[in-house]
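COURSE: Structural Biology Practicum
ASSIGNMENT: Worksheet 4, Part C
STUDENT ID: 0417
INSTRUCTIONS: Below are two proteins. For each, the amino acid sequence is given first, followed by its C-alpha cell string. Answer the questions at the end about the second protein only.

PROTEIN I
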Amino acid sequence: MVRIESLLSARLFLAPQVVGQRLYFVSNLSGHLSLYAMDHGGSVPEPLLPPDVVLQNPHLVGGYLYYAFPTLGKILVMLDDNGDENYQPVWIPLEGGVPEPAFGDAFARYRVHLLAPDGEKNTAYFAAESRDAQLVEAYQADLANGVLLKLRESPWGSYPSGNSDDHARVVLIDGYTVGDHVLYLWEKEKGEARLLFGTPLEQRTEGQVVPLNGISDCTFVAGDRSLLFITTLFEDTVGLGCFDLANPQEVKPVAIDGAVHQGLGELTGLEHLTGDRYLLTFNIDGCSWAYEGVYDHAARTMRLDRVLVGQGELANGVLESMRYDKAGDRYALSFSTATSPTQIYTLEGPDRQVIRHTRERILGIPQEWLSAGEDASFISFDGLRISARLYLPAEKLGFKPPYPLVYYVHGGPQSQERPDFAWFSMPLIQFLTLNGFAVFVPNVRGSTGYGLSYTKKVDRDWGGDDRLDHVYAMTEVLPKDKRLDTSRAGVVGRSYGGYMTLTLAARHPELWKAACDMFGPYDLLTFMERIPETWKPYFAIAVGDPQKEEDRKFLVERSPRTYMHQLACPLLVIQGANDPRVVERESRDLVERLRAEGKQIEYLMFEDEGHDVLKYKNRVRCYNAITDFFKRHLMA
C-alpha cells in the first residue's frame, strides 16, 4: 500500500536567493514552512527563525515572502499568524534570530505586501491593505533608516510596478479587474502622483468601452525618459510595449525576436537585469520558459539570445520562483514538474551553467508509478477550446480500466492548474492515481495562461459558461474514453474550485457519486460580506455588486446555496479556521444546513491553517481524508 507520507517525504524548497556564498530559501524541513540558509555548494540547512514561527505559502503572499539585504546584515520577512494573511514586515539578522518589527506598529491595522526590494540601495516598496477600510496605501521604504514615505492611496491597489534606478520616480498601478489598469507616476521632486496612462473609473461614462491594457512590470529606459512594460494592447497573449513619458498616450509595440518555444501560452514577466539586458518569462501550455534578451529602444525590439528555463533539466515543469543576483551575475530558482518535487538550482557563469543544489526525492515510490499526465484538451459546447490534462494510474500498479474518475477544479478562477509539485494539488493528484483513480484536470474559460480574452470570460459569470464547460466534459467528452468510468465520478476543488464543486454537485447531482469542497464560497452574498474590505471593490465589479438589486438577484441565482437542496451525493468539506478569504463561518453555514436536512456531510476543520493546508501533520490528514472519502464512495 502506498502511503501519502512517501509523497510528502519530498520537502518543499521555495523562493531561493543567493547572496555571496550563501543560499537562502523557504522549506518545510521541520514540518511547516520556515526560512533556512546553507552554503553555496552544500551544507546542512540552518534554520533562521525560531521553531514556533510559521511562514505562509509564497504563492498566496502577493509579493516577496522575504528578502536578504546583505549590506544591512538583515533579512526582511513577511509574517502572518497561522494563515490569517495579515502580513507584517519584520527583521532578522542574516544569520537568523528572533523577528523584530521593522516599522514598529505603523502597519498594525494593515495587511502588507513587500514589492520591488533593491538590495543595492536598501530600498523597498510596500502595498498596505487596510483591514478597516476599502483602501490600499503605497509606501517607499528607506530600510537603512527605517523611514516610510507614503506615495499614494486608492481603493484599487496603487501597487508599485516599476521605479527609476534612483527611486525618484515610481509607477503605481490601479487595477479594477484583470487587465483593466490605470497608471500613475509618482515623482519625488513634486512629492505627489499624477495620472500617467488610462481612464480612471470615476472619469468613465456609462457604457464607455475602455481597451484593456494589461500593463505591468514597468521599467524606466532611455535615460528615464521612456517606459518599457508588458501589455495586452497589441497581443491577447501579452507582449511588450513602450511609451515616452512626455507622450504616454502614444503606446508603441516592441517586437520580441528569438523565442524557440512552441505552443499556446502567455508572456508572464519582464525584469531588468543590467544595462540593456532583461529576463523574460513565459507560460507555455502550463510549463515555464525563461530567456535573457537584449533591448534596443531605438529599434523597439527585444532580442532573446539565451534560453534559461524550458530545455534540458529545466523542461516540462514550473518555476516556483527565479531571483537574479546582480552582484554575482547569476540566478537562484526553484523548479518542479508533475512527477519531480521542487529543487533549488543556480544558473551561473557566462554560459549560465545549471547547478543543482538539492537532491529532494520521493521515498518508496518508483518513478514509473507516477503519472506525468496526457493532453486531454477538448472543444466545448460553444466551440471554445478547453485545455485539460488526464492523469491515469500507471500500468505497473495493476489497476484495470475503466477507472473511477476524480474531476479536479482549480481555484482562482483566474488561475491555472500546472505541472507544479510545489502546489497542493499535484501530490493529491499523484496520490489519487496511486490509489487507482483517474484524475481529470481542466483549465476551463476564465483560467489564465491562454490569453486575456480567455481569462476575462469568467468576469460577472461565475457559475455560468465555466460551469457548462465542466458539464460538457462530463456528459459529452469523458464518457467516450473507455478507460474512464464516469458512472463512478467525484468532484473536488479548492477556493473558487470549491465554489464550483458545490455548484456542480448541487445543480447537476446526476453526475456525481461524491464531492469534496475545500474552503469554497457557499453563498455569494455572505461570502462577499466576509471577504477583506480591500477585496470588495474588485469583487463588486468582477463578480457582482451586492448593493445593486439586479446584481444581488444574480448573486443569489449563482450561489450554490440556492440549489443545495438538490445535493444527492456525500459531501466532504475542508476548511482552515484562520482563512481570511473564505472564512470558517461560510463553510460552517453549509455544514449546519446540510446536517439539519439529513444529508451525508463530513467536516474537517484545521484550527491552525488558513486558505491552504501547509503543516505536515495536517497535509497527511487532509490528503488521506480526501482519498479515503473517494475510495469509500467511488470504489465500494
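PROTEIN II
(use this one for the questions)
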Amino acid sequence: MVNRVVSRLGMAAVWMGLAPGVMALEASVEGVDDPLAQNVRRYLEGLDAEQYSRERLESEVLSRASEALRVYGYYSAQITPRFDDPEDPSRVNLAIEPGQPVRIEVLELSVSGDAADDPPFTEAIDAFPLATGDRLRHAPFDSLRSNLANLALERGYFDWRFTDRRMEVRPYADSARLYLSLDSGKRHRFGNVAFQGHHIETRRLENLAPFATGEPYLASEVALFNQRLGQTEWFASVNVRPRLSRELGQLALDDDDDVNWWQALDVPGIAPRAEGPRIAAEALLSAARLQRGEAPEVPIDVVVTPADRHQFEVGVGYATDVGPRLRLSWEQPWVNRFGHGLDHDLYVSGPEQQLTGVYSIPLADPLRDRYRFQYGVRNKDNEDTQTLESTLEAGRRWIFDNDWQQTLYLRGTYEDFTQAGVSNQVLLLYPGISWSRTRTRNPTFPTWGDRQRLSVEVSSDVWGSAAEFLRLTGDSEWIRTLGDDNRFVGRVGLGSITTDDFADIPPSLRFFTGGDRTVRGYSYESLAPEDDEGRLVGGEQLLTASLEAQRRVTGQWWAAGFIDVGDAFDDWRPNALKTGAGLGVRWISPVGPIRFDVAHPFDHDDTFRIHFAIGPEF
C-alpha cells in the first residue's frame, strides 16, 4: 500500500513538472504571412490555457495577437480565434484580417548640442530605415532611440536627455507621427587618471593610456586601457572606470525644516518659517549647464591588484621525434617598480636538454617596445651530432600595429661540438634581425590562422667572430577551414647559409630536417648531406613543404591525409627532394590536440614510420 502511494505521488510530481510545457497552448495563424504570423505565434508562446477561464483565455489571446500585429503597423486588425475544445483547449487557430496599415504622416528626428556635429549621431539618423508614407514599424524607432542613448553614453555626453520622444498613432486615420529629439549637452573630456593599488611606476602605467587629458571621452578607449593594463601581466585584476559625479546631487538643497537661530521669532503663537529654496534644483542644474563654458572633464579611476611575483608552470608531452619531454617554467612578470620581467625555462627530452632565460626591460610603450637580454645553455646528442652550446643575447623588440614583431639583436655563442666525427670549438659574435607574426582563432585547435617568420644574421672576423657567414631563414604556415568539417594546413620552410668557413659553423647553424613537424616518414633531423661514411654533416640550404587535408569524422575526431617534401642540401637545386605521405587521426582532447600519423617515405620500399605528438600546430 505504501509503495503504491509513493508510486502515485512520484507520477504526480513528474506530471506537475511536465505540465507547463505539455499544456502550453499551440497556435496556428491564417490570413497573414511571416513575419506577422511568426510574431503572433511568438507572442502566444508559453500561454498556459489552464491558468485562465474560457472568457479570460480568449481575451488574453486577442490581446497578445493584437499587440503582435501593432508592432508591424496593423492597428485595425480583425481577429477571430477558434479553439479546438471549448472546455479544455490545447490549440487555437487565429483567422486574421489585418486591415489597412498605419502609415507615417510626420517624421521628425533631430540631435542638438555638441552631438549635432558628431558623425556617429548624424549617421544613425540618416540610417533610419523609415520615411514619410512608409508603414509604421515599432522596432526601427525603438532601435534608434536605444542607439542614440548608447552613443551618448559611449561618447561622453553624460548630460544627454530626450527633449521629445513620442509615437502618436491615430488608428482611425491610419496615420502615425514620430518625434525623437536628443539634446546631448556638452561632450565630456578625459580628465586625470588616478591609480590605486599599483606597484609599478605611475608614469609607466600612464603611457599605456590610449587617450590624453583633454581629449573627447570614448568608452572604447577606457576598455582598451583596461585591456592594455591586463596584457602587461603585472596585475592579477584590473578595473578601469570613469568617475561620474552627478551635478544634480551636488546642487541638491537641504529638505530639512530646521530653522537657523537667526530666523527664530520671539513672538508667541507664531511659528518661524524656514527660508526654502526659491528655485528648483533642476532649474539650478540647467542654469549651471548654460553658464559652463568649458567642456566638463571625467577623471578615470584605475584600481589594480599586483600579480603573483613568482609563477610556475609544468608541462609534459610526448613526440616521436624526441620521446617524452618535460618543460618547467618560472616566470616573474615584475621584479621591480619599473615593470622589468625575468623568465626561466627548462626543457628536457632524450636528445636535447636546454635552459634559457630572458630579462626584459619595457620602454615608453611597455607592450610594444622593450629591451631583451637572454641567456641559454643547450646540450644535444642526436644522430651524428653532439654539441654543448652557451649563448648570450642582447636585443630590442618592437611590435607594430599590424601585429608584426621586429627584433634587432646581437648574439654571442660558444659551441663545443662534434659533427660526423669532426670536433671543434668556436666563439661566434653576430648581429641579426628577425620579423615574425602569429595570428590564430581558437589557439588550442585553430580554425583559422597563419604564422610567418624571417631572420637574417651576419658574422665576420672583423669584430672577432670565428667564422664569416650570412644566414637567412624563413617559414610560413597557414590554417584554413571550409565549412565546419574541412580543415587544411600548409607549411613552407626555407634556409640558406653562405660561408667559406663551413667547418667552423656549429650544428646549431647548419640545416637538418625530417620528423614530426617537417618531413614525416623520416626520423628527427635525419635528412642532411652525408660524408663518405654516411654520417650526417649538415647542409647549407634547406627547403621543406607540406600540405595536409583534414575531415571531421565525428565530434572531436578528425581524419587527415598529408604529403611532405623537403631536404637539407649544399646546392640551391637538389637533385630530388625527399617525399613522405600518409594518413593520420586528430583528437581534440581536454589537454590539447593529439596527432597520430602513419607516414611512408617514398625512397624506402615497404617502410612506414609512426609519428605521435601532443599540442597545436602553432
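ANSWER KEY EXCERPT:
Q1: The longest helix spans residues 2-22.
Q2: The chain has nine helices and 25 strands.
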